[in-house]
Amino acid sequence: MTPRTEQQPQMSVEEFEELERHAPETVRLEFIRGKVQVKRVTDGNHDQIIAWLQRLCMQHRPELWLYGERGMKVERYRKGRARPDGVLAPFGFPTGHGDWSEASGVLMTVEVTSHDSDTHQRDRVEKPDGYAAAGIPVYLLIDRDDGSVTVFTEPEDGRYRQQVNRPFGATVKLPDPVNIALDTEFLKELAD
Fold this sequence. Notes:
The chain has one domain: Alpha-Beta Complex (tt1808, chain A), CATH 3.90.1570.10. Helices cover about 20% and strands about 30% of the residues. The protein has helices at about 15-20, 45-60, 120-135, and strands at about 30, 35-40, 65, 70-75, 80, 85-90, 110, 140-145, 150-155, 160-165, 170-175, 180-185. The strands form 4 sheets. The protein has a 6-stranded mixed beta sheet. A two-stranded antiparallel ribbon has the order 1-2. Strands 4-5 form a two-stranded antiparallel sheet. The N and C termini lie far apart (about 40 Å).
């Protein structure tokens, strides 16, 4: 049997959007590389990491907001649908967008790993490619599995050309257009 890919998806984007609209609140669905993926509902430590990052972004860049779980059109030709844990964009960015926003204007997407079997493929392989293909300048991966922060930058031809990985506790520079330095010591407490 041939595996489903972007070229041969499980369903159309429109069919996925209809399915996602009717999914129960306990399930988060995404459409990456032509297949439907179930995203685990977050735990308290995950939520606290996003709250910590929202506060830091607000302190350093008050004209921006880190929107949680914002539906994004990603991948080439916007054929994918993802719900990043965070989307950093100018305040007011999603106004009038409906369920799914174009990537134009987004400065950074954020994912915090969940402790599930799909984390590696989804957060470390598929999403960086999807976000890069959509032209999102920075992708921040907070990896609770290995206690590290990875900053992906310079999207080109569907891939990020630069990738910097630092352990929790290090200071991590989020380059332009984000321009924020993160002291990640706090993340050591929330790695579980």
